[in-house]
Amino acid sequence: MSDEADANRVAGWFGDCYGRQPEGVWQAPGRANLIGEHTDYNQGWVLPFALDRGVLVAAACRHDGMLVIRSRQAPGEPATLPLATVAPGRVTGWAAYPAGVAWALREAGHPVGGASLAIDSTLPQGAGLSSSAALECAVALALTGLYGLDVPRPDLAILARRAENDFVGVPSGIMDQSASLLCQASHALLLDCRSGEGSAVPLEPAAAGLALLIVDTGARHALGDGRYALRRSECDRAASALGVRCLRDVAGADAADGLADPVLRRRARHVITENHRVEQAVALLRAGDLAGAGELLCASHASLRDDFEISWPEADATVSAAMDAGAAGARMIGGGFGGSVIALVPADQSAVRTGIGEEYTRRGWPPPGFLDAPPSASAHRLR
Ligand code: GLA
User: Fold this and answer.
1) How confident is the model at residue 224, as a pLDDT?
2) In 3D, which of 78, 50, 72, 67 has the Cα closest to residue 102?
3) pLDDT at residue number 349
4) CB distance 120 to ligand 1 below 6 Å
5) 269 Cα–ligand 1 center, Å
6) What is the CB neighbour count within 10 angstroms for residue 383?
7) Distance, CA of 315 to CA of 151 (rounded, Å)
8) Among 55, 143, 190, 247, who pairs with 42 as Cys (CB 3.0-4.6 Å)?
9) How far apart (Å, rounded) are the C-alpha atoms in residues 374 and 212?
10) Any residues with CB less than 8 A from the CB of 312 and at least 6 apart, and which?
């Protein structure tokens, strides 16, 4: 859908909710990660790109110090919160994400006041496409836009992540918020998660006769269910057993062999080899060999499945079916245990889509969702 149609729809809905026109409409995209999974909180490298779907926020200032939030995905009463008392632990459910952003901005000294927000999303939720980060980033842009605050985007990404970590209580890394705020169309973002330095890497599948396809496996995950946090702590334990600050500091995969605990050895091996795969993928993309990166996607999937142990049956079956049907590469994306697979496929995607669909039917699973994933622009104001 076009930006204009999105903006009209959300502005119209804002009018229905609040009986006035919004002062602005913002959109922040979800992301897919080409490669570099579970490397961000190990201070390594990631290579995400922005999707052409995301979260939309229509907003207007209020002068009564209240934050009033409505979400089209959560019909019913709006969340109505006195801004001055918004603090971690006081807001639960979906409203904690936007409220957490207001809190993080104010905590950092940005004078954000009351606002009426109407939120809509074009992203499937829980599909591993970063709908939470898109929500945080859209609200961050809306609030700073309404109050005329010029916060550099890398800082905004850190504040949006703070909302998720310290307000909502989900221990995610910096990848998703950075992707939503810093990606460029037709590019992936190579982000060094230690220095925060990002650079745009050309990613134009159509020019290579290819396409990026997201397959929503239908299996749902929750980053807050403890398994993501467990992987984080295993990585921290592996790093200290290896005598380094974090796994980013280990160069060769052989180093992991020195770990006595077989679980920590596998976790470390994934992170070390995944960082290396990001580096290789970037070199291939910069050399114009996107198809060549397909093998790295498959190697990443195998590592996430066997060493990091976060894949799920639908993801494994999707990757196999995609490869059997002619994909150049495929892998699970996101936190794991549910969500989506990314596949690098021929521009004519029909054989891959059919092959995957037939595999789901054969296994008696509900049909998967398919989404085209052209590398798109970062968060922006629509009007
Ligand atoms: C989730 C988190 C990210 C990142 C990925 C795994 O999407 O929000 O910070 O850790 O999982 O790569």
Assistant:
1) 67
2) 67
3) 98
4) no
5) 18
6) 15
7) 38
8) 247
9) 7
10) 217, 219, 332, 336, 337, 338
CA dist 37 and 176 (Å) reads 11
Which of 31, 33, 34, 38 should be mutated for ligand 1, with most atoms under 8 A from CB?
38
The confidence score (pLDDT) of residue 252 equals: 86
Residue owning tokens 């969500």? 339
Q: What is the pLDDT of residue 126?
A: 85
Q: Report d(CA 140, CA 100) in Å as an integer.
A: 10
Q: How confident is the model at residue 94 (pLDDT cuts 50, 70, 90)?
A: very high
> From atom 3 of ligand 1, which residue's Cα is the shortest distance away?
173
Which pTM does this prediction carry?
0.97
> For the chain, where are the alpha helices, taking DSSP H only?
3-18, 96-107, 131-146, 153-162, 175-182, 227-242, 262-286, 294-306, 313-324, 350-363
Mean pLDDT score across all residues of the chain = 97
Residue identifier of the C-alpha nearest atom 11 of ligand 1 = 335
Q: What pLDDT shows up at residue 251?
A: 82
**Nearest to 67, CA basis, from 180, 163, 182, 132:** 163
DSSP states along 20-49 = S--SEEEEEEEEEESS-TT-GGGT-EE-EE
Give the residue, out of 125, 175, 230, 275, with the most ligand 1 atoms within 8 A of its beta carbon, to mutate for a pocket test.
Answer: 175
**Rounded to whole angstroms, how far apart are CA atoms 256 and 264?**
8
Q: Please give the distance, rounded to the nearest whole angstrom, from the Cα atom of residue 233 to the centre of ligand 1.
A: 14
CA of 376 to the centre of ligand 1 (A): 19
Rounded CA separation 334/170 (Å): 14
pLDDT in tens, 279-333: 999 999 999 999 999 999 999 999 999 999 999 999 999 999 999 999 999 999 9
- Asked about 192 being catalytic, the answer comes back as no
CA–CA dist 319, 297 (Å, integer): 10
Ligand 1 pocket residue status of 175, Cβ below 6 Å:
yes
The amino acid sitting at 375 is P
